[in-house]
């Protein structure tokens, strides 16, 4: 039997998604907890890998098991064995040909950036930070150059193992919510550090270092050295996965609050 799970986690407590020899990853914690419920070792495959410090609002994984458990056991039972920084949100049986990674049609990320002269403390690890005023309209104009199918070599890390740098970025939205600048990105897949490198370049445009057209020059140059430095992981969230309806999975977006208007309003009032 193949089971799909949706989960969220606070990435600041882990060394990333992928299993490590030290057992410090989200995958390690989840597999240990699932093994307790299943009564046998469990290996999971995820829709997307996240780096150390990157969070998830809706990660999707699948695993195989030879035991029968109610869906509530895979949720509440697994959560009972997980640290408080990880939670299974739902569980569904799926067909044997479903794969959390290869069946995904679209993935989304969200980056939350506190735009204020003073660094965050209560929200440390949950938001990025930039101290100079940012012009969101300029950033929105620059973002349009990246939408569509492109070679994103200028936005991939040197450690990226993807076979091709070509990706289709279907949407890239930038908006201000209180004291936050919120970036939402949707693509068929993402390269290593792609979102954080895009955010870094948009911040360069927003602070006036370059005009919006500069982002097109960076994209077409296909040279990582021409872009801005990689932005910190703290404000980055793997926010959802879209699958075809035939798999019968819940809507692929994660829970919005307090990662949108509510957090923005709180941060806005706190920094006035």
Automatic annotation (TrEMBL):
The keyword Cell inner membrane does not apply. It is an enzyme of class 5 (isomerase). Residues 8-102, 142-244 form the Pseudouridine synthase I TruA alpha/beta domain. The active site is at 51 (nucleophile). Its EC number is 5.4.99.12. It comes from the Bacteria. InterPro entries: PsdUridine_synth_cat_dom_sf (IPR020103), PsdUridine_synth_TruA (IPR001406), PsdUridine_synth_TruA_a/b_dom (IPR020097), PsdUridine_synth_TruA_C (IPR020095), TruA/RsuA/RluB/E/F_N (IPR020094). The keyword tRNA-binding does not apply. Pfam families: PseudoU_synth_1. Substrate binds at residue 109. GO terms for biological process: tRNA pseudouridine synthesis. Keywords: Isomerase, tRNA processing. It catalyses: uridine(38/39/40) in tRNA = pseudouridine(38/39/40) in tRNA. GO terms for molecular function: RNA binding; tRNA pseudouridine(38-40) synthase activity. Belongs to the tRNA pseudouridine synthase TruA family. Formation of pseudouridine at positions 38, 39 and 40 in the anticodon stem and loop of transfer RNAs. Homodimer. NCBIfam families: hisT_truA. This is tRNA pseudouridine synthase A. It comes from Pelomicrobium methylotrophicum.
